[in-house]
């Protein structure tokens, strides 16, 4: 009863293709361990984690990276100029990005749009974010991140656009 | 003969003291607060008041909470089950983690 219990819910079924070898390894680790059934003495109830919780954890991971942050929404492929003055989210390396998360049983799919400081290697930044998000979501919620889709929609010069 | 109407002080639903249950859940270190709204819409309506984050329905007690940042869902589940199961009787206790505190503001 004191061990970590897997989050219960509908069967995973066929998961979407994963984006990284890390995610595939996490999925393989998450596959076994059938949850206790009602009537089992270890069964105390279900745990449900809302997608908002995962999205906040992912946004916090981006916020902690000094070279990544929120991205202004795009209209017809272009960043809306002066978005911050209109009360719309602006590209800012010191704020959290918009993140969406979907949970299917114990597997999570995450989409986010971020900005990155100009001239930083995008591959390094996105890899750090992807690894941090996968590790943190797994550690804090027990859910497995199957895919972290990162869209770099803006490049920021000197901390703000 | 009709049953006595409930008063504001009454907080027992199907044999479960909702006020006491809410108090012990909120006292768990990993729980920041009981919360209402989606996804579970958990709330108990009592005469002239409402207890948010707790619902008793059939053989299930649902608690909907905001997780304190830094605590894990496993820690939260163990704490809530240890606190709530004695009060829930034979019912199972479902836990809905609806939100997590902001590490900057703490809310």
Keywords:
heterodimer, A: 161 residues, alpha+beta, Alpha-Beta Plaits, 4-stranded mixed beta sheet, two-stranded antiparallel ribbon, 3 helices, 27% helix, B: 107 residues, 2 helices
Structure characterization notes:
- The complex is a heterodimer of chains A (161) and B (107).
- Chain A has 161 residues and is an alpha+beta fold.
- Chain A has a domain at 48-156: Cation efflux protein, cytoplasmic domain (Alpha-Beta Plaits).
- Chain A has 3 helices and 7 strands; from the N terminus they run H-E-H-E-E-E-E-E-H-E.
- Chain A has helices at residues 21-30, 51-64, 122-141; strands spanning 47-49, 68-70, 74-75, 78-79, 98-104, 107-117, 144-156.
- In chain A, the strands form 2 sheets. In chain A, strands 2, 5, 6 and 7 form a 4-stranded mixed β-sheet that branches.
- In chain A, strand 5 (98-104) and strand 6 (107-117) form a beta hairpin.
- In chain A, helix 2 (51-64) crosses helix 3 (122-141).
- The longest helix of chain A is centred in the C-terminal third of the chain and has 20 residues, at 122-141.
- Chain B has one domain: Alpha-Beta Plaits.
- Chain B is 23% helix and 35% strand.
- Chain B is globular.
- By secondary structure, chain B is of the alpha+beta class.
- In chain B, a hairpin with a 2-residue loop joins strand 6 (54-57) and strand 7 (60-67).
- In chain B, the strands form 3 sheets. In chain B, strands 3, 6, 7 and 8 form a 4-stranded mixed β-sheet that branches. In chain B, strands 1-2 form a two-stranded antiparallel sheet.
- The mean pLDDT of chain B is 89.
- In chain B, helix 1 runs antiparallel to helix 2.
- Chain A binds chain B through residues 1-2, 4-5, 7, 38, 43-50, 52-53, 56-57, 60, 139-142, and chain B through 38-40, 60-61, 67, 69, 71-74, 77-78, 81, 85, 92-100, 102-103.
- Strand 1 of chain A pairs parallel with strand 8 of chain B, so a sheet runs across the interface.
């Amino acid at each position: 009863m004191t061990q970590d219990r897997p989050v219960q819910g509908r069967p995973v079924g066929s998961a979407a293709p994963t984006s990284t070898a890390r995610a595939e390894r996490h999925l393989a680790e998450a596959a076994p361990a059938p949850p206790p059934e009602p009537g089992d003495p270890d069964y105390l109830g279900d745990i449900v984690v809302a997608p908002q919780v995962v999205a906040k954890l992912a946004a916090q991971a981006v916020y902690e990276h000094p070279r990544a942050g929120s991205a202004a929404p795009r209209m017809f492929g272009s960043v809306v100029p002066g978005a911050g003055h209109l009360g719309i989210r602006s590209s800012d390396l010191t704020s959290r990005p918009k993140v969406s998360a979907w949970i299917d049983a114990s597997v999570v799919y995450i989409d986010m749009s971020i900005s990155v400081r100009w001239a930083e290697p995008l591959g390094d930044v996105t890899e750090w974010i992807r690894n941090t998000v996968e590790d943190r979501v797994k550690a804090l919620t027990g859910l497995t991140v199957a895919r972290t889709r990162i869209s770099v929609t803006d490049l920021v010069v000197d901390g703000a656009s | 003969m009709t049953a006595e109407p409930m008063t504001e002080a009454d907080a027992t639903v199907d044999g479960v003291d909702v006020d006491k249950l809410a108090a012990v859940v909120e006292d768990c270190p990993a729980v920041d607060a009981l919360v209402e709204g989606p996804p579970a819409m958990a709330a108990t309506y009592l005469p002239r008041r409402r207890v948010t984050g707790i619902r008793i329905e059939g053989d299930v007690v649902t608690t909907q909470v905001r997780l304190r940042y830094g605590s894990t869902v496993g820690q939260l589940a163990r704490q809530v089950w240890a606190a709530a199961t004695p009060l829930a009787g034979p019912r199972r206790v479902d836990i809905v983690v609806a939100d997590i505190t902001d590490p900057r503001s703490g809310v």
